[in-house]
TrEMBL record:
Residues 162-269 form the Glycosyl transferase family domain. Residues 14-151 form the Glycosyltransferase subfamily 4-like N-terminal domain. This is Glycosyltransferase family 4 protein. Transmembrane segments: none annotated. It comes from Alicyclobacillus fastidiosus. Gene3D superfamilies: Glycogen Phosphorylase B (3.40.50.2000). Signal peptide: none annotated. InterPro entries: Glyco_trans_1, Glyco_trans_4-like_N, Glycosyltransferase_grp1. PANTHER family: SULFOQUINOVOSYL TRANSFERASE SQD2.
């Protein structure tokens, strides 16, 4: 298949950007000709290095139409708000099928509806988003749930003390990691979480804090036993340097795949430690990222949950092993890419032809 993924900017470290890069690379490995239509970003170079064709253009419907026709793409797949606007205003060739993935509730409902007559299928990445798109008027017959997948090769538990050594963190202390984008929608949450963790590290000399994420160094500063790293390319090293990770969405899934105890908290929802009792709730809302109604939570709640994970019982350790196996079973990128690939194939497969007097299609 000839597949074109569409995303406005290929910025570093975002969940949607990481998803698109991973999907493109895995589809390429499976023998498909894959391109990305984008206005640019630091990861455009990385995509080219992976062997993915990057169409770095003015992000207009005219440019998109030209790219589709010149490269004979049979599948186009939009992944963010600007991409959906392009789908809305672009004349799509009859032999090309368009797909949308809804990554969050920030994508406007009316915009999704306006794209439906040009779209073969709408993908959502969590059960909460299924509810959301139904609420904004998308028929369930048009929707497919395919959860975000992560590389189980890139994210696995290993002993790694490089970050501790680089930032002169003693071996005998506990490290709490927070990872998230400090962009407009998530900056307040990041600053709140870091402030709570700094308070824990000030009151306990055996606790250090590591903060990772795009924009973190512009929003929070280094302090006693708190190191702000900014964007981190090697997140597996980050997770495996921590005794606990706090984050939402892809961050929480990646940390759990590395076997690190994780507290899920997003801009609208607080799940708490991901254990058997919170697993279904975490899965439903993509580990705190997709919540229909904002959940209030207190600073004390995060402090107590962090303390309990630092001093966890044997029972909790046993539960964490179960969660580790569930994540690796249910969120493998190879499995998820196969699901996307099958969905494309279902639409591109020629329809059976029935002839008069024939009992079976030919």
């Amino acid at each position: 298949m000839r597949i074109l993924l569409i995303i406005h900017r290929l910025l570093q470290g975002g969940g949607t950007e990481t998803h698109v890069m991973n999907l493109a690379n895995q589809l390429r490995r499976r023998g498909h000709q894959v391109g990305i239509f984008t206005s640019g970003g630091l990861w455009a170079k990385k995509a080219r290095e992976l062997g993915i064709k990057v169409h770095q253009q003015k992000f207009t419907s005219k440019q998109l139409s030209q790219v589709i026709l010149r490269n004979n793409y049979s599948v186009i797949h939009a992944h963010d708000t600007r991409s959906l606007r392009l789908i809305e205003h672009t004349e799509i060739p009859s032999k090309t099928h368009a797909f949308l993935t809804i990554h969050g509730m920030y994508i406007d409902g009316p915009l999704i509806r306006r794209c439906l007559n040009k779209t073969s299928r709408v993908i959502v990445v969590s059960p909460a988003l299924q509810t959301y798109v139904a609420h904004v008027g998308v028929s369930s017959s048009k929707v497919t749930l395919i959860k975000n997948g992560i590389s189980m090769t890139d994210f696995k538990g290993t002993t790694n003390k490089r970050l501790r050594a680089r930032y002169r963190i003693p071996d005998n202390v506990k490290v709490i990691g927070y990872a998230g984008r400090f962009t407009l929608q998530k900056r307040l949450l990041g600053k709140r979480v870091v402030k709570i963790l700094e308070g824990i590290s000030r009151s306990r000399r055996d606790v250090w804090v590591l903060v990772a994420g795009r924009g973190s160094q512009l929003s929070v500063k280094n302090s006693v036993r708190c190191r702000v790293l900014g964007h981190v390319d090697d997140m597996q090293t980050f997770y495996n340097s921590c005794d606990i990770v706090i984050g939402s969405g892809r961050t929480a899934i990646e940390a759990l795949a590395c076997g690190v105890p994780t507290i899920a908290v997003g801009t609208k929802g607080y799940i708490g430690p991901v254990l058997r009792s919170t697993w279904l709730k975490a899965v439903k809302c993509n580990f705190g990222d997709h919540v229909l109604n904002r959940m209030k939570w207190t600073n004390e709640k995060l402090r107590n949950d962090t303390h309990n994970l630092l001093h966890r019982s044997n029972r909790v350790n046993s539960e964490l092993k179960i969660i580790y196996r569930r994540v690796r079973l249910q969120y493998s990128d190879i499995t998820k890419v196969k699901e996307v690939e099958q969905m494309y194939s279902n639409w591109l497969r020629p329809r059976p032809v029935y002839r008069r007097g024939s009992q079976f299609p030919r």
